[in-house]
Amino acid sequence: MKVAFVAHDQKKEELINFTIAYQHLFHAHELFATGTTGQLIMDQTTLDIFLFKSGPLGGDQQLGALIAQNDLDLLLFFRDPLVAQPHEPDISALLRLCDVYGIPVATNMATAELLVHALERGDFNWRDIIHNNRPVNVTGLKERPVDKQRGVSSAAAERQ
């Protein structure tokens, strides 16, 4: 599974402690993180994490691109709800993409605990089916010609 870590400044220590506690589990997965958060986690654990840029410098958007490609299975994003973030639109976009693509997200330790235990049990294996059976890109399909007399496509004309 592909797991990503993000944390606001006041939540970085909490996420680091969380990853220390579960590093035995995370070793079995492909890990990603925004730059500062990921580096801090790697400094305190033996985890190997692919680092994107820092969140405010585009890391949130890089993670969003991974999600839009349906290449992420779980996002652990420890947010600080009491501090306004200068890159709030990027954060909102990232969370919106998770909703669009059905990516489970934990924004606090309580939810992260539940999702990590689900990951450990194999409850995320349904994501493998998605990764292995992605829909074909249909943008190259040609539309059927329109029946000019009736103003409908030939497929619609055939049904009538």
TrEMBL record:
The active site is at D60 (proton donor/acceptor). SMART domains: MGS (SM00851). It comes from the Bacteria. It catalyses: dihydroxyacetone phosphate = methylglyoxal + phosphate. Pfam families: MGS. The keyword Lyase applies. One of its GO terms (molecular function) is methylglyoxal synthase activity. Its EC number is 4.2.3.3. Residues 1-160 form the MGS-like domain. Residues 141-150 have a biased composition (Basic and acidic residues). Substrate binds at H8, K12, T34, G35, T36, T37, S54, G55, H87. This is Methylglyoxal synthase.
